[in-house]
Automatic annotation (TrEMBL), chain A:
Lineage per the UniProt record: Bacteria, Bacillati, Actinomycetota, Actinomycetes, Geodermatophilales
Top-level taxon of the source organism: Bacteria
Name of protein: Bh protein
TrEMBL record, chain B:
Protein name per its UniProtKB record: 2-C-methyl-D-erythritol 4-phosphate cytidylyltransferase
Record InterPro entries: IspD/TarI, IspD/TarI_cytidylyltransf_bact, ISPD_synthase_CS, Nucleotide-diphossugar_trans
Pfam families noted in UniProt: IspD (PF01128)
Matching PROSITE patterns: ISPD
Record key words, sorted: Nucleotidyltransferase, Transferase
PANTHER family: 2-C-METHYL-D-ERYTHRITOL 4-PHOSPHATE CYTIDYLYLTRANSFERASE, CHLOROPLASTIC
Biological processes, Gene Ontology terms: isoprenoid biosynthetic process
UniProt entry tagged with the keyword S-adenosyl-L-methionine: no
GO molecular function, one term: 2-C-methyl-D-erythritol 4-phosphate cytidylyltransferase activity
Organism name: Klenkia brasiliensis
Length: 104, 238
């Protein structure tokens, strides 16, 4: 995961306007944590993955549509067979996908 | 004018929420985008805190290089920030190049271009226009005070004829009055201006709650949206 950002938001659990820790995966928001009460909001993994692949479609310039289509049909296989040559930062992307899929 | 100076603490490492990344761009760049569809809208004045001017210019250069946006430093209150933006627009208003001023929360990235057009048209016709989720129609003057504010579904952009707005702000400055929003100053110092209520949009949310960020991101990226709320400390491992 990338470095978190912090912003003042209102918490639906404790009602306070407090600093929230925001974590992104790639360009997409993954979780928010209220630093006042610990309340966490996260995207349900499945839709996050779809969103992430949609995002990936725009970030990877070569053959993006075909790649993303394949990824949507079979995400895990897509990750295993991810064509490294297409990716400028293969380690980073695999890491991000791993975060999304692992243990969820 | 896009107001970004109003909210958030100046302390620490916190990011003003309008500078947060959302579906690949900063929140206020999405907000700015809604003004781009109509060439009749402009110039755009972005009001930020003094310590955010450089950051705002950098984001604009990167994410909206072709937009002509004037960045001005806001004041301690919303009223002062609006006045700072009005002063920036003053020469254009006095020359008749700007006939209506639209005031919008930069933390509302989902207003869409249609609402800007509706508000501008209604303000031009009636003098003032405020979007809300009530039925369209003219508000009663004495009802306005109750209706101003988020609790009753009043949204932005709010529009006012430029000359009346300037006159109201000058009168407010002379009287040492600071209204909670533009409508309050207009109501008090330009009572002849009729403020029309135009239908707001159900997705025109002001980023306030953490969940709003997820919703806004999903709507802007047009992806599916589903969040779950977990108990304290549950973020831990992932
Ligand atoms: Zn909380």
């Amino acid at each position: 995961m990338e470095e978190p950002e912090y912003a003042d938001l209102t918490c639906t659990a404790c009602g306070r306007t407090a600093e929230h820790e925001l974590r992104h995966v790639g360009r997409l928001l993954a979780t928010t944590t209220c630093t006042a009460c610990g309340h966490v909001v996260e995207v349900v993994p499945r839709s996050m993955l779809t969103g992430y692949l949609h995002d990936l479609e725009h970030r990877v310039t070569s053959k993006p549509v075909r790649m993303a289509r394949r990824a949507r049909r079979d995400p895990l296989r897509f990750v295993r067979e991810l064509p490294g040559a297409l990716l400028r930062q293969p380690g980073k992307l695999l890491d991000e996908l791993g975060t999304l899929i692992r243990g969820r | 004018m896009l107001l970004a100076a109003g909210t958030g603490s100046r302390t620490g490492h916190r990011t003003n929420k309008v500078f947060l990344p959302l579906a690949g761009r900063r929140v206020f760049v999405w907000t700015l985008d809604a003004t781009a569809a109509d060439p009749a809208i402009g110039p755009v004045v972005l009001v930020v805190r003094a310590d955010e001017v450089e950051a705002a210019r950098a984001v604009l250069a990167r994410e909206a290089p072709r937009r002509d946006v004037r960045v001005v430093v806001g004041g301690a209150s919303r009223h002062a920030s609006e006045w700072a933006a009005v002063q920036e627009l003053l020469p254009s208003i006095e020359q008749g190049e700007v006939d209506v001023v639209l005031i919008h929360d930069a933390a509302r990235p989902l207003s869409g271009p249609g609402l800007f057009r509706d508000v501008a048209a209604a303000a031009r016709q009636h003098g003032g226009a405020v979007p809300g989720r009530r039925q369209p129609g003219l508000l009663h003057r004495d009802g306005l005070a109750v209706r101003a504010g988020e609790a009753v579904g009043v949204q932005t952009p709010q529009g006012f004829t430029a000359r009346e707005l300037v006159a109201a702000y000058r009168a407010a400055a002379d009287a040492g009055f600071e209204g909670s929003d533009t409508a309050a100053s207009i109501e008090r110092f330009a009572p002849q201006v009729r403020i029309c209520n135009v239908p707001g949009s159900s997705t025109n949310i002001k980023i306030t709650y953490a969940e709003d960020l997820f919703l806004a991101e999903a709507l802007l990226a047009r992806s599916s949206f589903d969040v779950r709320r977990l108990g304290p400390g549950a973020a831990g491992g992932s």
